[in-house]
Amino acid sequence: MAKVREVYGVRHMALDEAKKTVRIEYDASRLTEPVIFELLRRAGLDIVETMPMFTPPPPPEPVAAT
C-alpha cells in the first residue's frame, strides 16, 4: 500500500480495515480510475464495488402545466 501512496498524482489514501474500504484522492489530470484500480490490485486489494464521493442531486420535479 505504501507504493500506491508514492505514485505521482495520488494525493491522499485512507484505508479502513474495519469497514473494508479504501478512499483515494488523486489528480484526475494525471491518473484515471482504471489506473487506480490496477495499482490497488497490484497491492493485493480486490475492488468489489466503487462508491461515488458525492451523491448527484435528484432531478427537478416536473412543473404542472396550467
Describe this structure in words.
With 66 residues, the chain is α+β, with helices and mostly antiparallel strands. The chain has a domain at 2-42. The protein contains two helices and two strands; from the N terminus they run αββα. The model has no long low-confidence stretch (mean pLDDT 87).
Short summary of the structure?
The protein has a domain at 2-42. It has two helices and two strands, in the order αββα. The protein has helices at residues 2-5, 33-42; strands spanning 10-16, 21-26.
Question: How would you write the strand order of the largest sheet?
Answer: 1-2
Strand content: 15-25%
Evaluate the radius of gyration.
Answer: 17 Å
Runs in which pLDDT lies below 50 for 5 or more consecutive residues are none
Shape type: elongated
Summarize the topology.
Elements: H1 2-5, E1 10-16, E2 21-26, H2 33-42
Antiparallel strand pairs: 1-2
Task: Give descriptors for this structure.
66 residues; alpha+beta; 2 strands; 20% strand; elongated
